[in-house]
Amino acid sequence: MADSSASPTTPQNEEHALFFVRVWAEAVLREVARVRDTRRRAAVNDRNYERMEDWSPTEEDLDRDFREQWAQEHTLVWAAFQLEQWRARLHKERGIEPDPEHPLLRTMRNALEHLVDAQFVDERAESPAPTGKEGSALRQLKGLDIALGGEASFGHIDPAQVEAAALNVVRSIERDLEQEAIDRYVALLDEDGAADV
Fold first, then answer.
1. Residue 149 pLDDT more than 80?
2. Nearest-CA neighbor of 124 among 103, 95, 148, 147?
3. Model confidence over 12-68: pLDDT tens digits?
4. How far apart, in whole angstroms, are the C-alpha atoms of residue 132 and residue 114?
5. CA pseudo-torsion sign 34, 37, 40, 43
6. Strands of the sheet with 124-126, listed across from one edge
7. All structural domains of the chain with their residue ranges
8. Which pTM value belongs to this model?
9. pLDDT value of position 139
10. Nearest CA among 110, 171, 169, 177 for reference residue 144
11. Of 184, 165, 178, 13, the residue nearest 92 (C-alpha)
């Protein structure tokens, strides 16, 4: 049920919410593809580097792969969080209960946003304070992996789960847009019929 104390819903609010859901769903799908490609390339480069042949990548190549993957995985988390926020807004505009939030997404996004305040211990970012608001997301996560590897981004979120959720949103929006086109067509027919009377 929509919150009656919030600003009133309007067709424009719903239209903009739908627009931003589509923007962020498409962004998530692009970022998932980029993360996958970068992970594959980095894995191949790592294997080739270990062989130490003339054509093997250099340490600089591996460092560049790492930086690119790190930034893309961060961007994926950000885009997924935006998608979740805009989908909740769209549900609010339609007067329906929003889907539950992904249990880690907000915390991951907050930890990444405030990473600049972290204390770094080996390959992990940890909260700068044992209590209080500062570093609370890092405390909730019990730290954030700086090193990349494995199936989970930063040791916490599986990009495949983010991709599956985004695909479901995109499918639901495509259905909405198809129904919207049908509704417009029916409205045009109704207007033409009324004008003929």
1. no
2. 147
3. 999 999 889 888 888 888 888 888 888 888 888 777 777 776 677 888 888 888 899
4. 14
5. negative
6. 119-121, 124-126, 144-145
7. 7-100
8. 0.76
9. 92
10. 110
11. 13
